[in-house]
Design brief:
- The protein has 65 residues and is an alpha+beta fold.
- The protein has one domain (3-62).
- The protein is built from one helix and four strands.
- A hairpin with a 6-residue loop joins strand 3 (49-52) and strand 4.
Length: 65
């Protein structure tokens, strides 16, 4: 696939399982586009761009890696 959409993919996972999943997703970086919806900052820590939907105005910011 060229697009992977993840909606709260780590919300029910323990810390160790979340880390393994996020490592696997990092392995896909550059191979496809991922759209990640998450409350946990750890789930989006390695994203290239973030959109904060908690405000009335969505702001896009490029994250520093």
């Amino acid at each position: 696939p060229s697009l992977l959409i993840l909606d709260e993919a780590t919300s029910a996972l323990d810390v160790a399982t979340e880390a393994r999943l996020l490592d696997a997703l990092r392995g896909l970086a550059g191979k496809l586009t991922m759209v990640v919806a998450a409350h946990r900052l750890s789930a989006v820590a390695n994203c290239d761009q973030l959109v904060d939907l908690t405000t009335d105005i969505a702001a896009v910011a490029v994250t520093a890696k």
